[in-house]
Write a structure and sequence with these properties.
alpha/beta, Immunoglobulin-like, Jelly Rolls, nine-stranded antiparallel sheet, 10 helices, 34 strands, binds alpha-L-arabinofuranose
């Protein structure tokens, strides 16, 4: 009954700002630690959805660089300006798609371009980029192409142009090797303007026939300036979250529409021209958000993933296919007899990450440039899988992996919903199997997040830990295209997360999902970070995640109103922690009401406090507020100093605000 009152008050209070002022007295018992907060507590979930990898963080600008899309020339146009009005030109194309699949299964196609005494401008190829190409003024761009020809004789003029065909920069390459072997030629150039949607032309001049493959263009300002690397602004957004872990590669992408299209990590290693692309399952998933040009080229493969995790100080958490395709799609399962290769993939991944360079997979890692181990400690078996068929397969994985790596932690799926028959079956079964970590997903309305803040208060304190592996408040409903990352969704997550932190003895890890969305290429909303070809911004939900992560603390301590934990009384949600490393107390207060609240917090069990604390506030009077490319920080943290009087601090929590207070203990 009390809970119902809280929720209805909260919903009623969403209507307008009330000038009335509430007063609360809270007590924090600094010397009564309740639970350790795991360093992994707040992490990130990465999936190649919404152009997250290809067309997103993976900085390749050329779409369909190796002609392996279902339609081999997708993204490309053959330019023959002089033959513009010749109806036969398209049928007598000088560009032929060749398929050598008998000798090269990973990258079978290339193009054969016949250049017949052609002058510059008469024959060209244009690539449109993923949704155009984001080009920056005064930046170096690195072009490369693999080629093969019987004899030299062709010059290629590479140029970037804007929508009016103004040239933004370019270079000339003269492939001069001949013979049966493929060669790579590369050249760089600098651009003269910033353009959101440029395209690239290659004009051919001369005489001869040339085979081309892996036509590539990268900006030079990638993350850590790695050639062929990742978009630095997008990686920086992740680094700024200081995540405890990175879950990768998903998500449903792990399972695939069918088993043939599942994610297979071994196919994502080695030279990029040997990484066999597959159709992205989000290409066709939503008829109302089709993305026919969405493929996974695996330029961001498992090596790059481990490297990214290492770069930003996060624990890797790979999720592997458990011999089951997506149960919303084909629901195919591998037979138990054929499960060995799936289990072997899991064992080999551990060896790839951690094995000595004398091991098969450790050597492959070393050959890719990382002789030191990546220290992989955990792995997920299955994404959103459920039913006895999952349990049957999971048991085989668990037994084999634990036999070889006893200390290794495994994440088990509890399906796609946080309650119901499927959930209950798995929850009971996994607990009886002594699962290390149970992965729970909740894509729910903001009301659910506010009213489920006590979800983990009643969970068993021993046994399996919880990984809140995918969650996001939905302003409309799951998979609705109308979902927005509003301040209400973020505030509800902030409130809910007080419950995760308060139950840190049960909840070891949590990650918002999905992570990225391209404004012109998304399939699923809401998402934590939005990008276009040049910019990225964090949503209000992003800043909630960031504030939790930056203010994690090491031990939960009690914060109470009277004798009760603060779980929505008068629309206030609270949690407190201490950070043993910095000797600070960290108090998080979420005011989900339309009234200002003066919260007097008394600290017990501490000798002395610094005279001043630091307050970080995220707020908006309008719950519909969103961030945008024009106003990326409309809802963003603002810091100020707060006076501490003895052991009492008075924090005015503004209407609809998330407040974090840090005070040094002396
Ligand atoms: O985050 C988007 C999708 O939601 C994930 O791929 C899947 O695991 C969940 O259903």
């Amino acid at each position: 009954m009390k809970k119902i009152k809280t929720i209805s008050y909260l919903l009623a209070s969403l209507l307008c700002i009330n000038t009335a002022h509430a007063q609360h007295s809270l007590v924090v018992k600094v010397n009564e630690p309740k639970a350790d907060i795991q360093p992994t507590m707040w992490g990130i979930f990465f999936e190649d959805i919404n152009l997250g990898a290809d067309g997103g963080i993976y900085a390749e600008l050329i779409k369909n660089r190796s002609f392996e899309f279902l339609k081999p020339m997708m993204g490309w146009t053959v330019q023959q300006p002089k033959k513009k009005d010749d109806p036969l030109a398209a049928f007598n194309s000088p560009v032929l798609v060749v398929n050598r699949k008998e000798v090269n299964t990973a990258n079978p196609r290339y193009i054969k371009v016949s250049v017949n005494n052609t002058a510059k401008g008469d024959l060209g190829l244009t690539n449109e980029g993923f949704r155009g190409m984001g080009i920056k003024k005064d930046l170096r761009y690195d072009f490369s192409v693999m080629y093969h020809q019987d004899a030299p004789g062709i010059t290629m003029y590479v140029e970037l142009v804007d929508s009016n065909n103004n040239v933004l920069g370019g270079t000339t390459v003269v492939p001069n090797e001949a013979g049966i072997v493929w060669h790579k030629i590369a050249a760089s150039f600098t651009t003269n303007a910033t353009v959101m949607k440029a395209k690239m032309n290659i004009w051919f001049e001369g005489n001869g026939v040339i085979d081309l493959d892996m036509i590539s263009l990268f900006p030079s300002d990638t993350w850590k300036n790695r050639p062929g690397g990742m978009r630095a602004d997008m990686v920086q957004k992740l680094a700024d979250l200081h995540p405890g872990f990175i879950r990768f590669p998903g998500g449903c992408i792990v399972e695939g529409y069918d088993l043939e299209h599942r994610y297979q990590w071994k196919k994502t290693l080695g030279p990029i021209e040997e990484r066999q692309l597959i159709i992205n399952r989000w290409n066709t998933e939503f008829v109302n958000r089709p993305a026919p040009d969405y493929f996974q080229t695996f330029g961001l493969g498992f090596f790059e993933y481990f490297q990214l995790a290492e770069d930003i100080g996060a624990e890797p958490l790979p999720i592997l296919n458990c011999g089951m395709a997506c149960q919303f799609n084909s629901a195919e399962v591998a037979t138990i007899d054929e499960l060995d290769s799936y289990v072997q993939d899991a064992l080999d991944l551990i060896e790839f990450a951690n094995g000595d360079v004398s091991t098969k997979w450790g050597k492959i890692r070393a050959d890719m440039g990382h002789p030191a181990p990546f220290n992989l400690k955990m792995m997920g078996v299955g994404n959103e899988n459920w039913g006895p068929q999952y349990v049957e397969r999971l048991k085989i994985f668990s037994k084999t992996i634990k036999a070889k790596y006893p200390g290794f932690k495994l994440v088990n799926s509890s399906g796609f919903a946080p309650n119901g028959e499927l959930f209950d079956y798995l929850n009971d079964t996994l607990r009886s199997m002594h699962a290390d970590l149970i992965d729970e997903h909740y894509y729910q309305r903001p009301e659910w997040f506010f009213s489920n803040v006590k979800r983990y208060d009643s969970y068993p304190r021993d046994g399996s830990k919880i990984f809140a592996g995918e969650y996001a408040a939905q302003s409309d409903h799951t998979v609705s295209v109308n979902n927005k990352n509003t301040w209400l969704t973020a505030l509800s997550e902030a409130a809910f997360m007080t419950g995760l932190e308060r139950n840190a003895d049960v909840v070891s890890m949590a990650s918002y999902a999905p992570l990225f969305a391209h404004i012109d290429g998304w399939q699923w909303t809401p998402d934590l970070i939005w990008v276009n070809n040049l910019q990225s911004y964090g949503t209000p939900d992003y800043y909630v995640q960031q504030l939790y992560s930056l203010n994690k603390g090491t031990k939960v301590v009690p914060i109470t109103m009277g004798t009760d934990v603060v779980t929505g009384q008068d629309s206030l949600f609270a949690t407190a922690a201490i950070d043993s490393a910095t000797n600070e107390v960290i108090i998080k207060l979420v005011n989900a009401s339309n009234r200002s609240q003066t919260n007097t917090v008394s600290l017990q069990g501490v000798k002395k406090l610094a005279a001043e604390g630091k307050l970080s506030v995220l707020k908006s009077n309008d719950l519909n507020t969103v961030n945008s490319f024009d106003q990326p920080a409309k809802v963003a943290p603002v810091e100020s100093a707060v006076a501490v009087k003895g052991k009492d601090i008075s924090v005015v929590a503004e209407p609809y605000s998330f407040n974090i207070l840090r005070i040094k203990m002396l």
